[in-house]
Amino acid sequence: MAFNHTHYVPCLRWKQGEYQAVWRLSDRPVKHSFMPLIEAPEMGWDFEEEKVAKSVDDHLAPFAKRIHDKWGDGLCFVDLNLINPDERMQDGMHPASFVFDQLRSFKCAAVPVTGLHRDANYQNEIKKNVEKDRAGLCLRITLEEISKNSFKDELNALLSSLSVQLSDCDLIIDLGAPNFIPSDGFVALIQVMVHRIPHLSGWRTFTLLGTSFPETMAGIKKEGELIARDEWQLYQLLIDSFGKSKLRLPTFGDYAIAHPKVISLDMRKVKPSATIRYATSDYWYIVKGESVRDHDSQQYCRLSKLITDSVHFCGAELSWGDEYIQRCAGGSVSTKSLSMWRQVGTNHHIEKVAQDIANFFGSSSIP
């Protein structure tokens, strides 16, 4: 299952907007050029009842089937880091065992994800499933963890306890949503940290994941604003720097059109604005309207036209999401559904980034 630096690893919280976006991807090579890092979404909070909205059983019941139905039997990373480690299924089973048993029953090729500091119960369950599936393991670590003097000892201890060989491990360095500026300094920092990783060439795959996507839409100007895709610009600088230093080149990963921080909002009090999140080669073009509660769905037709009339529009043929935006701009479709517009933006984003990566390495002197 090994892939190289020309691949793409988007981190997707498996909610309706994300899994429908993946399901609607074209049958073109894009489906074979990326491997999703799928996160079981956080359990919602009922602010009125002041408790979790669903039991963990109800919350996780459709998760594996949605991976099967929307992604199929293709390879994917699966991470339960957003599920409270103290949660247990009604019968006492650990959520990780429940999820991977379900994935196994659907014959999904899922690689379990863990980290250096997950709790012992989680690590034990991951070990059991690694032994059952023989699909290896994905280790997701941070720069802060790599910088510690104890990093190598902790890494070796974890791999030993999980009985996993390095060649069966995928490595993801998760930057989260840092300050990427100044970019030259950040490139130098990452390069120093990567030098601290033992046997870099021995890992099955090596991915750098991060984003500069805004945490909220509150600060976005009405009508339209360009936000730099700093993680993509950083990645291009890193490839040049790593190539000159003869370091192993990482695969590019991002959080698509989302911020990694989980925000729990009381929707009784929140009035989200209509937005369309549209990736360009170096920026996100985010167009913003009024509250979706107080205004009809026709405002999305106006916002879509802002995109199609701009120099940033990639054309309806790029993706299902682009076609939907063009149709909405023409007035033939409209919706107030926030999940639909997450679907539209995510679908476009995956197709666009896969194209960006292919173009970058197609024109690069680095093989």
Care to give the gist of this entry?
The chain has 367 residues and is of the alpha/beta class.
Shape call: globular
Task: Please give the CATH class.
Answer: Alpha Beta
The overall pLDDT average reads: 92
Helix content: 25-40%
Rg from alpha-carbon coordinates: 21 Å
Uncertain parts: none
Question: What's the total count of β strands?
Answer: 13
Percent of residues in β-strands: 15-25%
* CATH architectural arrangement: Alpha-Beta Barrel
Helices, by number, come to 12
Q: The CATH topology is what?
A: TIM Barrel
Largest sheet: 8 strands, parallel, barrel
Explain this structure:
The chain has 367 residues and is of the alpha/beta class. It has one domain: Aldolase class I (TIM Barrel), CATH 3.20.20. 38% of the residues lie in helices and 17% in strands. It has helices at 16-23, 56-60, 63-70, 95-105, 120-133, 143-147, 151-161, 183-195, 230-245, 298-308, 320-329, 338-363; strands at residues 8-13, 37-39, 45-46, 51-52, 76-79, 110-114, 137-141, 169-174, 205-209, 225-228, 251-254, 273-279, 283-291. The strands form 3 sheets. Strands 1-2-5-6-7-8-9-11 form an 8-stranded parallel β-barrel, surrounded by 4 helices. The protein has a 3-stranded antiparallel sheet with strand order 10-13-12. A two-stranded antiparallel ribbon has the order 3-4. It is globular, with a radius of gyration of 21 Å. It starts with 7 loop residues before the first strand and ends with a helix.
